[in-house]
Amino acid sequence: MKIKVNGEFLTDFSGNINELLQKQNLSPDRVAVEYNGQILSRENFNNVSLKDGDIVEIVHFVGGG
Predict the structure, then answer these.
(1) pLDDT beneath 50, residues of the chain
(2) Which among 47, 17, 46 has a CA at the least distance from the CA of 33?
């Protein structure tokens, strides 16, 4: 399976969006996820299983001042 995450291809992953975030060491509470051109609500992170050819963009929020 081959998916594209933030412009880079992953070939060794299968699972859902939440599992992808865990693999990337990102907290679901601090990210926005676009899945194949659509913004996902956090409630759907566990419901969306990734499949070959999917494109995911993850934006994480960073505090600062």
Answers:
(1) none
(2) 17
For the chain, the C-alpha Rg in angstroms (whole number) is 11
Amino acid in the structure at residue 28: P
Task: Give the single-character DSSP code of 12.
Answer: S
pTM of the model: 0.89
11 secondary structure, DSSP code: -
Amino acid at residue number 3: I
CA dist 57 and 65 (Å) reads 25
User: Domain spans of the chain?
Assistant: 3-60
The predicted pLDDT at position 65 comes to: 62
CATH code for the part of the protein at 3-60:
3.10.20.30
User: How many angstroms separate the CA atoms of 63 and 10, rounded?
Assistant: 28
